[in-house]
Design a protein that fits this description.
Keywords: Signal
Low-confidence stretches: 1-8, 261-268
Shape: globular
Family: Belongs to the Cyclase 1 superfamily.
Distance between the termini: 37 Å
CATH superfamily: Putative cyclase
Oligomer: single chain
InterPro entries: KFase/CYL (IPR007325), KFase_sf (IPR037175)
Organism: Didymodactylos carnosus
Protein name: Cyclase
Bound molecules: zinc ion
Number of strands: 15
Helix content: 10-25%
Largest sheet: 7 strands, mixed, barrel
Length: 268
């Protein structure tokens, strides 16, 4: 029983041939948020025994699409790109994925902007199929602390003063130029794929215009990294956003699947 609880705590589950890691933060009223967005507001509405016969529970919640672990639909920053319900399912399920570890750089500079060189360390990225790149800044350890995670003390709704790492404009341009036919999504373990200091959200603009979606507030990348045969190994990602008509984004469940047969950046 103790062992089972420990497994749940790490969001890991084993099956005979694969290891599953849940890369999703649990939503609650304490969930960290981007200041301009409506916070997650959960109300436990009913939890009762009906006439002493059976138990019945039902809750309600209100939230921005962009709270918690979520997907930014390309339409979020590009009026000609896909809304959340329009993203083809083959770009969400069973996608080869790679973690680029930039923790060291971000530890030295909380406003670090991920460079082209950081990406090149992991090349050649030469898969023949769709893929997702996840950037691991190490910021997920602050997730339950809004001021640490967002880098600002004030609780008002202005985005000023945010401090956390993100991609540089050059890195976003590079990804689009080099990989846009195959790169379906870019994820990060912070509030935004743009660094906190960004004013115009250029990285969003560049990627989303090319129908590359964003994954924000991704959890447990360190757990995946520990389980990989080597840091540059690939694994499978399943990304399951809520299907909202005209959605600019949606909360999503992200699950990593690590299989023995995938290693060394090639699918055997
Ligand atoms: Zn978003």
């Amino acid at each position: 029983m103790k062992h089972f609880a420990a497994l749940l705590l790490l969001s890991i589950e084993y099956s005979s041939c694969a290891l599953y890691v849940d890369l999703t933060h649990t939503l609650s009223n304490k969930t960290s948020y981007f200041p301009t967005q409506t916070r997650f507001n959960f109300t436990e509405q009913t939890a009762t025994w009906v006439n002493g016969n059976y138990f019945y529970a039902s809750n309600t919640f209100q939230t921005s699409e962009h709270i918690g672990t979520h997907l930014d639909a390309p339409y979020h920053f590009s009026n000609t790109s896909w809304t959340i319900d329009q993203i083809p399912i083959e770009r969400l399920i069973s996608i080869d994925s790679l973690i680029i570890d930039v923790r060291k750089q971000c530890k030295q500079n909380k406003n670090y902007e991920i460079t082209v060189e950081d990406i090149k360390q992991y090349e050649p990225i030469n898969l023949n199929k769709y893929f997702i790149i996840l950037f691991y800044t190490g910021w997920d350890v602050y997730y339950s602390n809004q001021s640490m995670y967002s880098g600002r003390i004030s609780n008002d709704n202005s985005p000023d003063g945010l401090q956390f790492p993100g991609l540089s404009v050059k890195a976003a341009d590079y990804l689009v130029k080099k990989y846009h036919q195959k790169l379906v999504g870019v994820g990060i373990d912070t509030l935004s794929i743009d660094a906190g200091q960004s004013k115009q959200f250029d990285v969003h603009q560049i990627l989303l215009k090319n129908n590359i979606y964003g994954l924000e507030n991704v959890a447990s990348l360190g757990t995946v990294l520990k389980e990989l045969s080597q840091p540059t190994a690939y694994f499978i990602l399943h990304v399951l956003p809520i299907k909202i008509e005209k959605g600019t984004g949606a909360q999503c469940r992200i699950v990593a699947v690590i299989q023995d047969k995938i290693s060394n950046g090639t699918v055997q």
